[in-house]
Amino acid sequence: MASSLTCTGVIWALLSFLCAGASCVGFFMPYWLLGSQLDKPVSFGTFRRCSYPVRDESLQTTVMVEQCGRYASFQAIPSPEWRICTVVTGLGCGLLLLVALTAIMGCCVSELISRTVGRVAGGIQFLGGKVKGFL
Q: Topology versus the membrane, per the UniProt entry (predicted)?
């Protein structure tokens, strides 16, 4: 299997793939903020939540749903700031994953990544990291 990457490029590709994977897992996990409500542990992320309160109209009280789930719609995300965070973080993860997968393909296919393509990919990766780190 021929590669168009140097030894440094292969290390960059593998580290990029690991970092992009960790970013995507972190994006999908609902454990960004931890706390308690109604004496139950609760947590939520940008579009998932665990143990959340629901109003029970038949009992006229608030009960805790002790399970994890995503919000029913984009508008159900609690605030405009969290909606923006969801979009921007997802965009950053997508850019990081795109560059990482391209770099991994460069490890397997010769002449796929030239010096210019590597620099552009590094710039896109930097932009994805800055977008994700902005929040």
A: Multi-pass membrane protein
For residue range 20-41, list pLDDT tens digits in order: 888 888 887 767 777 877 777 8
CA 91 to chain centroid, in Å, comes to: 8
Domain of 83, in residue numbers:
7-134
Span 55-107, pLDDT tens digits: 888 888 887 778 887 777 888 887 888 888 888 888 888 888 888 888 888 77
**Would you say residue 117 lies in a domain?**
yes
Into how many domains does the chain fold? Answer: 1
Phi-psi bin for 4: left (phi > 0), alpha (psi -120 to 50), beta? alpha
Note whether residue 2 is domain-resident. no
Pairwise CA distance, residues 37 & 53, whole Å: 8
Token output for 56: 């029970």
The model's pTM? 0.68
Q: Is residue 1 part of a domain?
A: no
Does some domain include residue 61?
Answer: yes
